Amino acid sequence: MKESILHYVWQNKLFTAYDMKTTTGELVEVIDVGKLNTDAGPDFFNAKIRIGDTLWAGNVEIHTCSTDWSKHNHHVDKAYDSVILHVVKEADTDVFRIDGENIPQVELVYPKHIETNYDHLINEQKWIPCANKIGFVPSIFIQSWKNALLMERLEQKMQSIESLLAANNQHWEEAFYITLARNFGFGTNSQAFEHLANSTPLSVLGKHKDQLFQLEAILFGQAGLLQADTHDDYVEGLKKEYEFLSAKYGLKQMDAVQWKLLRLRPDNFPHIRIAQFAALIHSSSKLFSKILDNPEIHFLRTLFACKPSDYWQTHYLLAHESDKKDKNLGTQSINVILINTVIPFLFCYAYQKNNQILKDKALELLEQIPGEKNAIVNGWQNLGLKIESAFDSQALLHLKKYYCDDKKCLRCRIGNKVLTMKK
Ligand code: SF4
C-alpha cells in the first residue's frame, strides 16, 4: 500500500464519509480536507474537521498505519503538534503530540475498486498504464485535460525563454536567435547550433545581413567547418572572408567535432541547416519583431521558407558536389520551428505584456498546424485519440513524457476517471 493512494482518496474526498468515526468512537465530519502540502511538514494544511461537537481547524497527517507516526519521529517534532487528525489505513496504535496529548485518528474507508484500479495502473507494463481503459474515458473530458496540458507545456517552455532573456539583458531578438538556432539543429545538432549562436553575436550577423556570402562565411567559419584544404572556389572564398571578419570582430570558432552527421538524412546535414539559417538571417532582420507585427500562419510560412545560396542546390557538404536538388526549408521543418520556437516566444511575450489577444493568437496558430508525426503521436492514435492539430500532439507529447512515463496517474485527470471506474 502506497501512501500516495491514501493522499489521493483524501484529497478527492473518495472516502466513505457516512458514519466516519475516530478510533475512540467520536463522529467525524470532514468539512474541508485542506490543501496538499508538497514540502516538509504535515500532508494537508488548513483542514476543517468536526470531531464530536468540536469544530477543529488545522493540519492532517496521513500514513499507511499509525506506527509510522513514531517511525517518522513526528512524536518529537513540533511541526506535527498542529495535526488535528491522523488519517490511516490501519490504526495499529495510539499517537501523541510532544506534550503527550492524544491525537484523534480515523481509518480511511474507500471503495475497493479504487485500490484495484490503482494497483493495475502501477503494475501495468503496456505502452501507457491505462491503455486498456482510456477508451472508456469520455472524449470531452480528455479534451479539457489536453487544454490544461498544453498550458502546462507552454508555461514550461516560457521558463526556459525567461532564463534566456535574463542571460541576454531581456533582449528578445537575441534570445529568439539563440532558440531558433537550437531549433535548426533539429535534435541531433541542437547543442552544436546553440553553441554556434552563443559564439556568434547577432549584432555581428546584423552588420552583414545584406551579404549572404559573408553571413555564410561567418557561420561556417564559426562552426569550425572551414578547416580542410580544398580546390573548391566557394569554400576557399568563404575561408578568406572568414579570416578577415573573424579578426575584425575577434570571433572564436567552435570545434567541428560537435557536429554530427551519423544516421542523418543528407537534407538534415548541419551544412544544409547552416546554409538555410544564413539565408533566413539574410532575408529578414529583427525577425521576432516581424513575427510580432504579423503573427499570421501564411506570413510565418513565407518568412521561414528560406532558400540557401545556389551552391547548396548541388551540395550537401562543402566541396562535395551532388545532384541538383532544392534545399529550401521544407514545410515539416517550418512547422517544427513554429511549434517549438515561434509559438512559445509569442506566448511568452504575450504573457509578459499581459496581451490576451496575442496569447489567443499563439494558441490559434497551434490549431492551424498539423500534428507532429512520430512514434509517440502514433501511440496515442493507436489508442483511439484524435490528433487534429499541433495543439493535440503537443498536449499528448507532454502527457506521455511528464505523466505516463513516470506513472503519475494520480495527478492525471484521465487517471482520476480510470481510478474510479467500477469495471
Ligand atoms: S498518466 Fe494518465 S494517461 Fe498516462 S497512463 Fe496514467 S492515467 Fe493514463
Key features?
423 residues, alpha/beta, 2 domains, six-stranded mixed beta sheet, two-stranded antiparallel ribbon, 17 helices, 8 strands, 48% helix, binds iron/sulfur cluster
Order of helices and strands: HEEEEHEEHHHHHHHHHHEEHHHHH
Question: What ligand molecules are bound, each kind once?
Answer: iron/sulfur cluster
Report the radius of gyration as a whole number of Å: 29 Å
What fraction strand?
A: 5-15%
Mean of pLDDT: 96
Spatial separation of the terminal alpha carbons: 21 Å
Number of domains: 2
In terms of structural class, how would the helical and strand content be classed?
alpha/beta
- Large-scale geometry: elongated
Note the main sheet.
6 strands, mixed
Continuous helix count: 17
Q: Helicity range of the residues?
A: 40-55%
pLDDT < 50 runs, ≥5 residues: none
Detailed description of the structure:
It is a single chain. This protein has 423 residues and is an alpha/beta fold. The protein has helices spanning 3-11, 68-71, 112-123, 139-167, 172-184, 190-199, 202-207, 212-222, 233-249, 270-283, 287-293, 297-304, 331-352, 356-368, 375-382, 390-404, 413-419; strands at 28-32, 35-36, 44-51, 54-65, 83-90, 105-107, 315-317, 320-321. The chain has two domains: 3-110, no CATH class; 168-368, no CATH class. It has 17 helices and eight strands. A hairpin with a 2-residue loop joins strand 3 and strand 4 (54-65). The chain starts with a helix and ends with a helix. The model has no long low-confidence stretch (mean pLDDT 96). Residues 121, 128-130, 134, 399, 403-404, 408-409, 412, 414-415, 418 line the site of iron/sulfur cluster. Iron/sulfur cluster (SF4) binds at residues 121, 128-130, 134, 399, 403-404, 408-409, 412, 414-415, 418.
